Structure formats: C-alpha cells, structure tokens
Amino acid sequence: MTIKLDPWGAAIPENYARVMEEFGISPFENLLQDIPDPHPLMKRRIIFGHRDFERVLNAIKRGENFAVMTGLMPSGKMHLGHKLVIDQLIWYQGHKSDIFLCVADLEAYSARGISLEQSRKFAVEEYLANYHALGLNLDRCHIYFQSTNDAVRQLAFLLSKRVNFSEMKAIYGFAGESSISQIFYPMIDIADILHPQLKEFGGPRPTVVPVGIDQDPHLRLARDVASRFQKEFNFILPSSTYHRLLPGLTGEKMSSSRPETAIFLTDSDEEVEKKIRNAFTGGLPTAAEQRRRGGDPTKCRVYELYVYHLLPDDEKLLEVNELCRSGKMICGECKTKAIELMKDYLKEHRVKYRRALPKVRKIVEKV
Amino acid sequence: MTIKLDPWGAAIPENYARVMEEFGISPFENLLQDIPDPHPLMKRRIIFGHRDFERVLNAIKRGENFAVMTGLMPSGKMHLGHKLVIDQLIWYQGHKSDIFLCVADLEAYSARGISLEQSRKFAVEEYLANYHALGLNLDRCHIYFQSTNDAVRQLAFLLSKRVNFSEMKAIYGFAGESSISQIFYPMIDIADILHPQLKEFGGPRPTVVPVGIDQDPHLRLARDVASRFQKEFNFILPSSTYHRLLPGLTGEKMSSSRPETAIFLTDSDEEVEKKIRNAFTGGLPTAAEQRRRGGDPTKCRVYELYVYHLLPDDEKLLEVNELCRSGKMICGECKTKAIELMKDYLKEHRVKYRRALPKVRKIVEKV
C-alpha cells in the first residue's frame, strides 16, 4: 500500500525529523507495507516513527505473544489527544498482546501533588471508564497502580543501582533543588516499561510502548538500563512507536489544564459547540476572499479533528480537504459539520461510558 | 542512683562530646535516676546520649505503648557489637513496646551487591536466630524485609517529595557518580523509622531508635522530614539513644569483614581462644614490669569485653579492674579468664541457637 496524496499533512515536520535523526528513530512509513492490517493512525502517518518495531511486527505476523505498555497520569480530564493511545491499544488487543496499563499515581503525586486517593478516583472516572467505553476490553488488560505495585517498585530500586546522578541530570536537568522523588521517579517509569519482561509477568518478550516524541528520553534510558541488566533479566530492548501530538484547538499545545484547547470525552454539547466555534483555522479574513482563494487545511485545527478522529474514511476526508481548498466550504460551514459529527460521536460515547463505569469500578476494585 | 567510680571508662570521649554539643544530643546520664530499672548498658554509660528520650520514658512509666525501631543489614556475621542493640531490645520488650525489626535487604543490595535471596538467608541464620537465642521474643516483634514492605516503600516515596538533592548531598556527600539507588536509599531508612507512626501500624506514638552515634545523620534527617509532614501524618519526632561502638579486639574498628577484630556469636572455641589471645591490651612490655606498675584497663580491648558483655555484675567487674591496676593479674591470666567466660557463654548460646533456628525459620516464612 502506498499513499500518494498527503491530505493529512503527513510529511514529518522538521523538528520531528531532527530528533529522529539525532536519536535514531526510524520512519514508520517503511514498515507500513509489511503490516497486514495497519491502523488508520499508521496509514495517515500520525504514527510516524519507531524503534525496533520490527520485532513486534514479527510477533504479530507469527501470532506470538508480546506486551504493550502504557501509562496514564490521573490528573485532569481525558481529552481527544489521550484517545490516540487508546485507539492503538484497541488495535493491539486485536492481536496476541498483553496490555499493561499503569496508573501513574506516584507521578501525579510527585509532579502535581495529587493524593493517591484522588488519583484512584480520577483514574477510574476520567480515564479507565472512557477507555472501556471506547472499546478497550479492560478485563483483558493488566491494570495497576504505581503506588501499590510492589514488583515495579522493587525493580525500580534494583535498576537504580546502575544509573547515576550525572546521567539523570543530563536527561532531566535535575539540580540541587530537585526533590528526591523527582530524581527517583524516572526509575519507576523505566521499571514500568521493563516489568512485563520479568519472568513472573511472562517475559522476556518483545514490548512496545506507544508514545509522543516528547517521551523519547524515557525510552532511551529504559533501553540503556535494559542493556545493563542483560545478565540478570535477559531483557529484550523495548520497542516504541511515536505519534504526533494532536495540536490544541486554539493554536497552543493541547492541555487538560486549559479546557479551551481540547475536547474532553465528557464535554457537553454546548462545550463542544463553543470550543469548535472558537478553534483556530486555516481560513481567510473574509468569507468572500475564502470562497475565491480557498482555505488551508494544513493550518487548521478543525481539520486535524477530521484527520485524527472524525473521518476515519479516507474518501470522506479527501472530500473535506478538496471542499476547503477550493473555497466551496468555508470555515463556518465546516465547523458546523465538525460540531455535528463530534456531538453525535460524544452522544454515543456517553451511553457507552455510563454502561462502562460500574463495570470498570468492579475491575479496579480487584487491582 | 549515682555512680562515683568510673571503672568502665564512662567519661564521654571528646569526639563524642563534640558531636553531642554540635547536634544537640543530651547526656543520657541525666535521665538515669528517673528510669525505674535501668539496663546495665545505661548504668555503665555505654548508652551515653539521647534525643527526646523523655517521651519514651514517660510512656514506660505510665505503662503506655511506644515503638522501638531497629534494622539489621544482612551482610556478614553477627558479632558482639551487634548484640548491644539486641540487649536493649530485650529490655524494651520487658516494657509495653512494639518492636520493629527491619531487614535492610535493599541496603545490602545497594551498598554491597548482595542479592535479595542471599539477604534472606543471612538475615535468618546469622542474625534473627541469634536474636531469638539471646532472648528476644521474635514472635512479638514486627519483622519485615525492606524489599517486600510496600507500606515503607510507599512512605519513602511520599516523604521524598519534600527532601531535595542539596540536603542529601550535604548529609551524605553524594556526587555525579552516585547511583540513584544510593541517593534514594536514605529515604527508605527514614520511612523505616517513621512508619511505626502510621495509623495502620498503631501510630502516631513515641518511637525510639537505639543507634551508634555514626547513625545520627539519619536520625536528624528523619526528624526534619517528620516535622515537614505534620499535617499529613501528625508524626511525633522520633527519639533516639546513642551507644558507644564496641571497639575492635585488635585496636581497629570492629568489623564483620575483618574477623580478627570481633567475636562472632557463631565462633568456635578455637577462634575465641585465638582472637582474645591476640587482642590489644593495656599491658606493659614485660610481665615483671606489669606486676610492679599495674595495667591500664581503659586502653584494654579485653577489659571492654568484660564491661560490655562478660561481667554484668558490677562487683566482679570492679574486682577485675582492681586486679589489673594493681598488677595482681597480668594480661595472660586475664585473657585466660575472659576466654573461659566467653567459651562458657557461647557454649550455652550455641544450644539456644540450635533450638531457635527452626522456630525463626517458621516465623520468617510468614513475613
């Protein structure tokens, strides 16, 4: 399968390309034709890079078991940007994978001062119930909380014997005023990534961690540390994939702490309407001008919503792209369309969420 | 009770006195008359200093519950120096205390590279079985391993949020090449000390940690950290007592890694004989000279054995002191006496040890 057109702005942005080259991340594109059923996020190059994904792909092709590891930081609300990872997990769940979901309550405590009790509540109501509603079968995932997972913390401590302060400082920029929990925390992160490879958890085996490129330093450190403990644990260096971050609606980075930048899965119709109406677009100052000269979807945050979420069907996406560029559909009309699609989507999601919540509460009680 | 004589060299050495003044450690002596049944180690000023012991003493007098916390590092063998702490624990067990015994297997791993399995074996065979044989009822102690005590590690992480790298560096001298496990480890130590005060462990309540003065930095940090978490945990600042370190037989510091410096509880008669014969004394070059001028027990490592362990009866100790000073008993004779006492002691101990071992194995299996 080769994609000729670039209607989703799939050329790798320059800043990403630089990081890829500097740190040895390979373009995901080169693997696409080998993947039997690539996910739309792969086809649209939203997943644009990887490290050692070949070994995961081999496991997929041979029907062999592998692990997928991801974490959630239970602060704030789940937005569409978070959904990108869940979409991938659902795809992996269709293959023979063990999915590990880590609730980073220690990180939430260390970085944001959120208590462990608050974290548990947030994790269930804002994240896990949404995951289940989206179609991830949580019954088949290994869900755990960092604060109560003894194996992970024990591993973190063991691994931290061969990582020194200078290394951590170089990666994370620690200084004298850094707290000891900040300094130790990355080791927990690394133990999260590597623990599916402990014998007691079914390892060693290929593991993939789907992340945004901003998470790459953790992955590099995890791979370094894994290689330092070959004798003890026989770790297979973890693989990773890199997806673009869904940009914020307003032009800024999407963030849970600035609600206007993101659509939350629990937003009301009114909120959806307001946020999309105020979104940054690739339109021109006047409607007349835009009808004449056309809009620019590559700059448009509403168009991103179509690409990432609202229009999984390529034909329909191309149609919107064409209507925008030709000036046949201007921003107001386009936003109305996006609002309708989003409302429909969230309406259905709300029903699923309500059904999921009590189930997920039960699942998490056992964790 | 006032002690006029100083036959056990109880004047506080100058280097201790300096530390006491600089860091605010009070002389234990001032409390002695308030203690209903002071331990011989207290009467002989081997326990010479304390911080806030008054609140533990008050609990003792009122028959109220308090906690005693100590740890053992499972590397090497248990020697008579280690026994000092156990003697104190047995005394505390006679009062209404909860004794917490921490097996510092994470420290053994971090500092000495000893695996967690090895640690478990050492802890039982070299330490805990000896403790039980000495008379500490382990059935009534809270024994735990750092590596498997979730509550302690969780607490360590929570507390580490309000301790920064500069502080730790100032206390422990960390540098760039320090490993993250070294940097994090003191927080586990502090969590060990404070966790008997968590609600789930029966706290908050007075806690005492009997230590050698070299351990004081941990105690100071533990108290600082406790005061930073008043709101969350309502900690009572932990109390501590300070005992002299039993000096090594040869003149050097006593150490498990230099067997000639210490009597181990598992030493054979031949080893005891050889070690005491070779011990450093306060004798003079020739027997004739010593008969004439007398020896100096304050310089003698064999005399220390009498003071710390072999002659709990003050009258008998004074007698040896007098015989030495007057030249009536010279080193060879005195060593023979010490060897006989030590052999008798260890002979009896061996029988108790053999009885204790299977019991202690059972107790630890449940931990």
From TrEMBL, chains A, B:
<keyword id="KW-0436">Ligase</keyword>
<dbReference type="Pfam" id="PF00579">
    <property type="entry name" value="tRNA-synt_1b"/>
</dbReference>
<dbReference type="InterPro" id="IPR020653">
    <property type="entry name" value="Tryptophan-tRNA-ligase_arc"/>
</dbReference>
<keyword id="KW-0547">Nucleotide-binding</keyword>
<dbReference type="GO" id="GO:0004830">
    <property type="term" value="F:tryptophan-tRNA ligase activity"/>
</dbReference>
<dbReference type="GO" id="GO:0006436">
    <property type="term" value="P:tryptophanyl-tRNA aminoacylation"/>
</dbReference>
<comment type="function">
    <text>Catalyzes the attachment of tryptophan to tRNA(Trp).</text>
</comment>
<feature type="short sequence motif" description="'KMSKS' region">
    <location>
        <begin position="253"/>
        <end position="257"/>
    </location>
</feature>
<dbReference type="InterPro" id="IPR002305">
    <property type="entry name" value="aa-tRNA-synth_Ic"/>
</dbReference>
<keyword id="KW-0030">Aminoacyl-tRNA synthetase</keyword>
<comment type="similarity">
    <text>Belongs to the class-I aminoacyl-tRNA synthetase family.</text>
</comment>
<dbReference type="GO" id="GO:0005524">
    <property type="term" value="F:ATP binding"/>
</dbReference>
<protein>
    <recommendedName>
        <fullName>Tryptophan--tRNA ligase</fullName>
        <ecNumber>6.1.1.2</ecNumber>
    </recommendedName>
</protein>
<keyword id="KW-0963">Cytoplasm</keyword>
<feature type="short sequence motif" description="'HIGH' region">
    <location>
        <begin position="74"/>
        <end position="82"/>
    </location>
</feature>
<dbReference type="InterPro" id="IPR014729">
    <property type="entry name" value="Rossmann-like_a/b/a_fold"/>
</dbReference>
<dbReference type="InterPro" id="IPR002306">
    <property type="entry name" value="Trp-tRNA-ligase"/>
</dbReference>
<keyword id="KW-0067">ATP-binding</keyword>
<dbReference type="GO" id="GO:0005737">
    <property type="term" value="C:cytoplasm"/>
</dbReference>
<keyword id="KW-0648">Protein biosynthesis</keyword>
